[in-house]
Amino acid sequence: xxxxxxxxxxxxxxxxxxxxxxxxxxxxxxxxxxxxxxxxxxxxxxxxxxxxxxxxxxxxxxxxxxxxxxxxxxxxxxxxxxxxxxxxxxxxxxxxxxxxxxxxxxxxxxxxxxxxxxxxxxxxxxxxxxxxxxxxxxxxxxxxxxxxxxxxxxxxxxxxxxxxxxxxxxxxxxxxxxxxxxxxxxxxxxxxxxxxxxxxxxxxxxxxxxxxxxxxxxxxxxxxxxxxxxxxxxxxxxxxxxxxxxxxxxxxxxxxxxxxxxxxxxxxxxxxxxxxxxxxxxxxxxxxxxxxxxxxxxxxxxxxxxxxxxxxxxxxxxxxxxxxxxxxxxxxx
Length: 333
What we know:
This protein is α/β, with parallel strands linked by helices and 333 residues long. The chain has 2 domains: 2-115 and 259-328, Periplasmic binding protein-like II (D-Maltodextrin-Binding Protein, domain 2), CATH 3.40.190; 117-257, Periplasmic binding protein-like II (D-Maltodextrin-Binding Protein, domain 2), CATH 3.40.190.10. It has helices spanning 2-18, 36-55, 67-75, 86-94, 151-163, 177-185, 201-209, 222-231, 269-280, 283-289, 311-319; strands spanning 24-28, 58-62, 81-85, 107-117, 120-123, 142-144, 171-173, 191-193, 215-217, 236-240, 252-264.
């Protein structure tokens, strides 16, 4: 943790120095075992390659604790762009839940990216039904709910609260995705929460080493989804197809929420325009970074957005003939 902190401080100092010339832009992602980090790194490589020589604009990606931390970094001007869960975008813009009386009206959307798919993995010995309610069998057991400042942790708490699962009765650990996978394989925990676009590297690692005879990927029923959508309509049905993970022989019925790329209202319009244009004109490169991004498309770019679009993104989408609903058009902070 100390090494990671010092590395982050180094990046922030580097960013602060570079920002004086307005040529360096930081994209904040999440822990290294999920989807945000590799895609964020891939995106920055693409942007720097395409824009660096022509415009002297460069991008860097940093690991973080996830959505909550990322919104905070934007607020403190320690990052220009962030990948977040749609749930956090909805709460931050509307000033609800953890953002009660603290609405983040300086936020702006750039694009919906891909679906953030719920992956609750537990040891087979604790699974009696294969449903999300098997988490109750972990009362008194060790469970990694994800890093303490992460969107993954908070969204898991939201889901469990809504379904009547008391996570406070578990022996909670706050580990990143890779650390969770290692701890599960070593028998130090009985389950982990790792939402991301499949295939999630941490989940692949667990299934590869332990297999479906030793671990279970829990499912959500239609009734469960209905309960959740009553309060949080941002979640929808998602089916993880058979063989997405090693030795996974059947479809897994789970749920998902959209992931978003966001920025601050003060980010220059031309920068956001160039980022959006470059990303959508090079989707094959993004797809090569992680299979989960295959669903990323211009046709779905504004689906599920709850934060108004940045002017630079609006400019590009209008050029491409996309009709933008009024609630996503630019408003003053």
